[in-house]
Amino acid sequence: MKRYSITSLLRNAMNYHEDWQLAWGSPEPKPEYDVIIIGGGGHGLATACYLAKDHGIKNIAVVEKGWLGGGNTGRNTMTIRSNYLREQSIPFMDRSLEMYEELSSYLNYNVMFSQRGQITFIQSAAATRRAMRQKNTMHLYGADYRAMSFDEMKRRLPIFENSPNARHKVSGAVYQKSAGIARHDAVAWGYARMADAHGVDILQNCEVQGILRENGRAVGVETTKGIIKAKKIGMAVAGHASVVANMAGLRMPIETQPLQAFVSTPIKPILDAVVVCGGYGAYVMQSDKGEIVAGSGADPYPSYAQRGTPPIIEGVITAVTEVFPVFRRLQLLRQWAGMIDICYDGSPIISKTPVEGFYCDVGWGSGGFKATPISGKTFAHLIARDEPHELAKGFTFDRFEKGKLVLEGGVGYNRG
Amino acid sequence: MLQIPCPWCGPRAEDDFICGTEADRKRPKDPSALSDAEWADYVFNHDNIKGNTGEQWWHFRGCGRWFVIERDTVTHEITPIEGGGMK
Question: How far apart are CA B31 and CA A414, in angstroms?
């Protein structure tokens, strides 16, 4: 891998940028690998990268049915934060945020991480209690989170208005200063480039259609490019976790639902924080291109359609224009949805499965992007050493039958 | 916007309804006879079908009754079931 730097930029400028090295190759599948990762999104690529770099495994393939980062990695709204509620989640997500702080230099790839802070509006008395509970819980783990007075919030967000007709009046906020956004494509591309440099085969347009098993052990995958054998198989799939798990004979505590997002026409810089409207469960921010980006929770029924329905659009627009009336005159430019796999307790599964040699890193719900580095790190640790990483040992496959749920707001919570 | 055909009220907009769960999900007759894994399978696990599947819906903001429809989770094509699946 030729490193990107100011000198490489100057050198390539001399050649009219025609001689840049390809960021990753397009190899043909080998007949057998030590590890196959199913899913070439951020999580799968990060896993492959850490397997090669941290654990010295060289013979790895990432199998992706479409193109790199073309699933939820390219469909999320880029927010990175660690305000969770449980002892399993907070240190895990906080470590992910720290990894993001160093990710651009680690990958030698600019992921455009911008720690602009996240302000969560408190819009009811019950929300005040919830916010204070969350703040105190975060402090137990040394994470950055604090209350923000109404006046400070108003200074920070001059365009904010508490309309006299507002259904959910804002009384204050909680604030995570270290939260921010990163360019989601760059995270996938950066990990892909690093993984490729360490000998990982990235196989795009190669869809897994079956999991080969012998004596209860997963031994390979059947793909559109033929059968590929593997000693270990890791599934880092979003939006199709149940479908792929089903190929290995497993049933998952997961429901797939569409999560929508919206982008307005670009405007000049006006909003320099990620704002969450707690009362509506909606969020809004401004992208580096100037678009106002907004979204909320998932459509509350199962769907694999990669599109959403109008009630959510109406809810998001109501929430955003109620607190930022200046946005009323904006026009929506694009609307889309990604399919998210929501676990029953709202936490991921990073775990071995009852099928030997078949590991899963799934069920990320609406929160996968922020966890990309730590997900890759802990999943690689699990696959390489056959034991869970210290930070991820609560996210097991069997926690449901053992009653050790990590409740963060899952399918049940999401049902109207 | 989905139009869900309530067998008693006729087609209504989706936000009248709450999607319950898979149609063939039945509470086991004797839960105490099940192992933890079997009970967890009933409580938490889903087929989560991609394609045509039966679902229970609740006309929450209408007549308040439950019924069953078939819906394709990719195309959202809905096939009503005679009598709402309630015998």
Answer: 26
Residue A234 · residue A36 · CB < 8 Å: yes
- Rounded-to-integer distance, Cα A337 and Cα A332, Å: 14
CB contact under 8 A, A251 and B45: yes
CA distance B87 to chain A (A): 25
Residue A319 has pLDDT above 80, yes or no: yes
Q: Residue B35 carries which side chain, given as an amino acid letter? A: S
Structure-block tokens of residue A216: 């209860």
The alpha carbon of residue B40 is apart from the nearest alpha carbon of chain A, in Å, by: 5
Q: Which of B59, B64, B57 is nearest to B85 (CA)?
A: B57
Within 10 Å of residue A352's Cβ, how many Cβ atoms? 18
- Confidence band for A416, pLDDT divided at 50, 70 and 90: very low
Which residues on chain B are in Cβ contact (under 8 Å) with A300? Answer: 18-19
Per the CB < 8 A criterion, the answer to whether A93 and A137 are in contact is no
Q: How far apart are CA A291 and CA A263, in angstroms?
A: 6
CA distance B87 to B85: 6
| pLDDT band at residue A409 using 50, 70 and 90 as cut-offs | confident
Whole-model pTM?
0.95
Per DSSP, A402 falls in state H
Tell me the one-letter amino acid at A386: D
The predicted-structure confidence for A41-62, as pLDDT tens digits, reads as follows: 999 999 999 999 999 999 999 9
Residue with tokens 């920070």: A156
